Amino acid sequence: MKTLSNQQTVEIPEGIKISAKSRIVTVTGARGTLKKSFRHLALDMTVEGNTLLVQCWHGDRKHNAQVRTVCSAVENLITGVTKGYKFKMRFVYAHFPVNINITEDNKIIEIRNFLGEKFVRRVEMIEGVTVKMTGNKDEIQVEGNSLDSVSQSCANIHGSTLVKNKDIRKFLDGIYVSERGHIVEAE
Predict the structure, then answer these.
(1) 68-78: string of b/e by CB count within 10 Å (b at 16+)?
(2) Which of 15, 78, 103, 116 is deepest in the core (most CB within 10 A)?
(3) Which family does the record assign (predicted)?
């Protein structure tokens, strides 16, 4: 059943500037600027004072669900430009220790000796994302402002070390996300 109007608002905190033009949302904050396009959705977006209004007209269940999805995505953008995102990844191996090398200004990670293979896996980070070693053994930290970019970079690292043609219950080797958080911790 179609509803006449479904709407939801996102509160804009102090120090954050949001503009929504042609369903392209731009969020500017202390850590930088993030831009996300919602051109594929039939929604109205307007900035009124310190709120962003997202509205759907004559929508069925799926179209009404898009309103909440857009609001969640904008809230993630706001969190990204205020606190940033930080994911920690751990290396898991049974016999052959995994070696990594971070090159090109913390933008590319090279994974060596995975399962004893000579093949070097190179994973390039998405724009705006950096990777670095932490103080702990066999741990890296992937950080950036965009949640989508940071989580996709972690997925690319994890996907490069998937075990093929073996029993995955026995061969648990790989690089896995162990912790999620923010770069700027709340006081």
Answers:
(1) eebbebbebbb
(2) 78
(3) Belongs to the universal ribosomal protein uL6 family.
Q: State whether 106 and 158 are in the same domain.
A: yes
pLDDT in tens, 29-87: 999 999 999 999 999 999 998 999 999 999 899 989 999 999 999 999 999 999 999 99
At 149, list the tokens: 């970019």
Contact predicate 175/181, CB 8 Å: no
Q: Within a domain: residue 65?
A: yes
For 93-113, how does the pLDDT look when each residue is reduced to its tens digit (9 = 90+)? 999 999 999 999 999 999 999
Is residue 187 a part of any domain in this protein?
no
> Can you tell me the distance from the alpha carbon of 23 to that of 26, in angstroms, rounded to the nearest whole number?
10
Residue 114 DSSP label: G
Residues 165 and 105 in one domain: yes
Among candidate residues 62, 82, 102, the one where a domain is terminated? 82
Across 124-145, average pLDDT: 94
- In 3D space, the residue among 138, 131, 26 whose CA is nearest the CA of residue 93 turns out to be 138
Q: Is 85 exposed, middle or buried (0-12, 13-18, 19+ CB in 10 A)?
A: buried
